[in-house]
TrEMBL record, chain A:
Protein name: Putative DNA-binding transcriptional regulator YafY
A GO term for molecular function: DNA binding
Pfam families: WCX, WYL
InterPro entries reported in the protein's UniProt record: CBASS_pafABC_assoc_protein (IPR051534), WCX_dom (IPR057727), WYL_dom (IPR026881)
Chain ranges of the WYL domain: 233-317
Keyword field contains DNA-binding: yes
Family matches, as PANTHER family: PROTEIN PAFC, PTHR34580
Keyword S-adenosyl-L-methionine (UniProt): no
Record-annotated WCX domain positions: 349-430
Keywords: DNA-binding
From TrEMBL, chain B:
Domain of life, source organism: Bacteria
Record's protein name: WYL domain-containing protein
Organism: Paenibacillus cellulosilyticus
Lineage, top ranks: Bacteria, Bacillati, Bacillota, Bacilli, Bacillales
Length: 441, 266
């Protein structure tokens, strides 16, 4: 059986999160490059998942899923998109068996034989009684993912649930742990595993009698919610990088409009229409805090640095291993070239100088604070009481330009001259657009 | 390590819920171990608890996935975990009021009674705030934890707590503003990044197929108008404020002022 891929779900959820409400079924399907039938089927699955997870939804979120995923900022910090990672398919009988095993192992350690008896007793008659081989297979899986541990070194092995992290902690300590996981999952990358852990700890608090609202004391503004979808590929890439392994994948440039192409099962149409698979030696992953987007950076066989938006990557396959020497050589090149990238740009390095104006109102100097906090490796020189200079050597200007522009009239570009001209032209155009507003003031 | 595991499956999860059982995987423990090495762990736990946690995680693999990640354009972190979070979150969870002592912007300090509502972390400023309701000024307050000197819990009568909460949530609700941002059609090719830039707001998108025009309908708290404006300026000519007089006026003001900065008269 082919490995289950979640590319379709990732793309669909991303489109819902980004452009929620904008498209009807046909338009959605067309943009995803799938049939309306497949769209409906995937939506049904997602809805089923959402309702069975009983995520507490606010009235605003309860609108149809197809209208998009909306966040009411003040209601909850639960990441709605996390349910993507709950999508792995599982036979009903298997989920019953695994949860039965885990339940009986919560507070005791048992052997496979004892578990077999337990399962036969406790499992509903609607499901076939498992045999010993099945139970051993289940135990192997549960041990592999780490949810159970062996408690003895000699046969017959005894197993118990690996929940010391919950059981060994006092109520107060559990609250501290929940909070820490909540804070770190929300403020650091990567965060999917943290959010999964947060879910479990939240339940542990509930079980100990804490009001669910007691878990909702923190808010985070603002999150790029779809960032966690891209973590779907992160672990595959991490393994490839660790093993110095090339990967192949199909890339859909986000600009082209179609985010996913169904794999054609008809051999007559086997040819990939969208994009070629790209053999790439993955080197680093970049997270861009300005948009909440991820990039994969690697080395192509045509001997060049290549950058891919993580969201366009589908159907990753692992390829051959390269030598340590080759990997390090390319990694050094990438690190050198990207040292001065505002995000990922590797164009020629340019000196940018800008004058920033302190706020006219007395009080905190939020302009200065923002430049100091976000100006990356740029340097600040004092100029006068009204202003200061900011200088940076940066690869290309395309990535830093929006940041400079976001300061509005508090930033005046001095160098390079052509960038200064561009800013003047843009502000003129913006002013012209809003000119009619002035007449209404 | 693959986040798509059978053990995370939604049916699995709801069955475990029903039987009050827990499943903790190696992945989650490895993630926690990785993040306990962050310096902010010292502020989040007593040293006993931290020692206990590290002991419980001692056997987990130490591979750090962050080794392959480079973070760009990140705001410098003032702090991730503030030492006062622990006591404040308990006051909030218990529904207590508090005598709040804080430093004022222009020097000096103030002490007044208030109802702590939430602890808020700004991903932009990378620091924590306490959101609280001040009955004296009938206002919602946001105080940087760095400016907070003390917050002593005060037990409240249930009726009093309920009425304070009601007033606070009314104020929160009344602060909501709406605006419509239009994606300039010429830049539809860049729709993805434009939508990403606005994906941090509470918003919906509408699309007029005939005109091939996208509108982003943003709901935002009134005091976040400046942040929304900085996003609009960030995108430059790609977007325009279609509805929202305050935002339009501010865009006109900042473009006019910017032009003046460059020494060009009107």
């Amino acid at each position: 059986m082919a490995r289950e891929s979640f590319d379709k779900e990732v793309q669909l959820l991303r489109l819902l999160a980004l452009a929620g409400g904008a498209y009807n079924r046909q338009q959605f399907a067309a943009r995803l490059g799938i049939s309306v039938h497949t769209y409906d089927k995937t939506m049904r699955y997602l809805k089923e998942m959402q309702s069975s997870l009983k995520q507490p939804l606010s009235p605003e979120q309860e609108t149809e899923l197809s209208d998009g995923l909306r966040y009411n900022y003040y209601e909850s910090a639960d990441p709605l998109l996390l349910f993507l990672f709950r999508a792995k398919s599982l036979k009903e009988s298997e989920s019953v068996r695994l949860s039965t095993i885990l339940t009986v192992l919560q507070d005791q350690s048992l052997t496979a034989k004892e578990l077999l008896d337990c399962c036969s007793e406790t499992m509903s008659a609607d499901y076939p009684s498992p045999d010993e081989k099945t139970i051993r297979g289940d135990l192997k899986y549960l041990e592999e993912v780490g949810v159970i541990v062996r408690t003895s070194d000699s046969r017959p092995f005894r197993y118990t649930a690996a929940i010391g992290l919950i059981n060994e902690l006092s109520d107060d300590e559990l609250i501290d742990l929940y909070d820490y996981v909540d804070v770190m999952a929300n403020t650091q990358v990567p965060s999917v595993q943290g959010y999964l852990l947060r879910d479990t700890l939240k339940k542990a608090l509930r079980k100990r009698g804490f009001d669910p609202s007691a878990a909702e004391t923190h808010l985070y503004k603002y999150h790029y919610h779809s960032r966690i979808l891209d973590e779907a590929h992160l672990h595959t890439i991490h393994r490839a990088i660790r093993e110095r392994r090339r990967i192949d994948f199909v890339y859909h440039a986000p600009r082209k409009g179609k985010n996913y192409a169904a794999k054609n099962t008809n051999p007559l149409f086997e040819r990939e229409e969208q994009s070629q698979t790209q053999p790439l030696l993955p080197l680093r992953v970049i997270y861009d805090h300005q948009y909440g987007r991820w990039y994969l950076i690697g080395h192509t066989q045509r001997n060049a640095i290549a950058k891919f938006r993580m969201e366009g990557i589908t159907q990753i396959e692992e390829g051959e291993v390269v030598s340590e020497e080759e990997f390090n050589r390319h990694l050094n090149t990438v690190e050198r070239q990207m040292e001065r990238s505002w995000v990922v740009d590797t164009l020629r390095t340019i000196k940018v100088v800008a004058r920033f104006f302190n706020p006219e109102r007395p009080g905190s100097n939020f302009i200065r604070e923002r430049v100091e906090a976000q100006g990356q490796w740029g340097s600040i020189t004092e100029e006068s009481d009204e202003s200061f200079l900011y200088t940076i050597m940066v690869n290309g200007i395309y990535e830093i330009k929006p940041w400079l522009r976001s300061f509005g009239s508090s930033c005046e570009v001095l160098e390079p001259a052509w960038l200064r001209k561009e800013f003047i032209a843009e502000w003129k155009e913006i002013q012209a657009h809003y000119e009619p507003v002035r007449k209404n003031i | 390590m693959n986040p798509f595991e059978k053990i995370f499956n939604y049916q699995m999860l709801s069955r475990l819920d029903e039987s009050n059982a827990f499943a903790l995987t190696t992945q989650e423990r490895a993630w926690l171990k990785m993040l306990l090495s962050h310096q902010s762990a010292e502020n989040a736990f007593t040293s006993d608890t931290l020692g206990k946690l590290r002991g419980l995680l001692a056997d987990e693999a130490a591979a750090d996935i962050r080794d392959i990640i480079i973070e760009k354009a990140k705001s410098r972190e003032k702090h991730v975990y503030h030492p006062m979070l622990r006591s404040l979150r308990r006051i909030i969870a218990q529904g207590f009021g508090s005598y709040i002592t804080y430093r004022l912007k222009h020097g000096g300090m103030r002490n007044q009674f208030g109802l702590p509502l939430k602890l808020e972390y700004s991903m932009v400023k990378r620091e924590w705030y306490l959101l609280w309701y001040s009955p004296r000024s009938r206002m919602l307050m946001a105080t940087k934890l760095d400016n907070l000197i003390a917050a002593d819990a005060v037990e409240l009568h249930a009726d009093r707590a309920a009425s304070l909460h009601r007033r606070a949530s009314e104020l929160l609700h009344n602060r909501k503003q709406q605006a419509v941002i239009e994606v300039v059609r010429m830049y539809n090719e860049e729709l993805s990044r434009i939508l990403y830039a606005f994906s941090c707001f509470d918003k919906t998108v509408s699309y007029d197929e005939q005109a091939d025009l996208y509108h982003i309908h943003v709901t935002y708290p009134a005091d976040e108008g400046e942040y929304l404006l900085s996003k609009i300026r960030f995108l430059g000519l790609r977007v325009r404020v279609a509805e929202g007089n305050y935002l339009k006026r501010r865009m006109w003001e900042s473009s006019s002022k910017a032009i003046a900065r460059y020494g060009i008269g009107e």
